[in-house]
Amino acid sequence: MRRLIALCAVTLTSCATTSTGPLAAGPGTYVVSRQAGAFPSGREPLLAEALAEANAKCAESAKTMRLLSTHENAGPFILGNYPKATVVFACD
Fold first, then answer.
1. d(CA 77, CA 84)
2. How many domains in the chain?
């Protein structure tokens, strides 16, 4: 029974969207990444969520987010190539 519960927990955890960042990427520059889980629908608003995290980071210090670049993984979303959005930004 415990193994079944552990297996279910691992399976559900791998389905979740994960976030990395904001992480410092240089002087005044940050990176945020959002990645869908194991069973992506392809409709996840990952870029919008990453931009919201970037805006929130800059708002903490009463600054405005300046977008430097974005990147989204291209499909097909199989074999570990999950949908992912990355935002590089600065706070001015």
1. 10
2. 1
> pLDDT tens digits for the chain (92 residues)?
555 343 344 344 445 678 788 999 998 899 999 988 766 555 668 999 999 999 999 999 999 999 999 999 877 777 777 889 999 999 99
pTM: 0.73
Paired tokens of 3: 């193994």
Q: Which residue in 24, 25, 23, 45 sits closest to 34, CA to CA?
A: 45
**CA separation, residue 64 to residues 54, 76, 77, 90 (Å):** 10, 35, 33, 8
Inter-residue contact 17 to 37 (CB < 8 Å): yes
Is the backbone peptide bond immediately before 27 cis, with ω within 30 degrees of 0?
Answer: no
Alpha helices in the chain (DSSP H): 2-15, 46-60
- Structural domain span for residue 44: 2-91
